[in-house]
Amino acid sequence: MPFANFKVPAGTLDEKQKERIVTRTTELYVEIYGERARASTMVLVEEVTDGGWGIGGNVLTLAMLEQSPEQSPEQSPEQR
Q1: Does 77 map to a domain?
Q2: pTM (whole model) above 0.85
């Protein structure tokens, strides 16, 4: 059974966007494996609470992601 798991920040997708992820992912698996994959393809869209995830050892929040690169605190003044 093909399976895809998307983890997204909570509150960033509406129901229509989640439906689009499920539909397009299913279509991708059908394109790869053929029509037989449609009935058994499972797509899970999980919402992760704010601050409940990170990259490179750093906890991230939605506010941090919404900052433009020039606002990012990790950059030195020369990089901005």
Answers
A1: no
A2: no
Q: For 54, list phi and psi in degrees, rounded to 5.
A: -165, 170
CATH classification at residue 11:
3.30.429.10
Task: Determine the residue type at 12.
Answer: T
Any bridge partners for residue 41, and if so which?
none
Alpha-carbon span 7 to 55, nearest angstrom: 13
Asked whether residue 61 is domain-assigned, the answer is yes
What are phi and psi for residue 24, nearest 5 degrees? -70, -35
* 18-32 confidence digits (pLDDT tens): 999 999 999 999 999
Q: pLDDT, tens digit, for every residue of 34-53?
A: 999 999 999 999 999 998 98
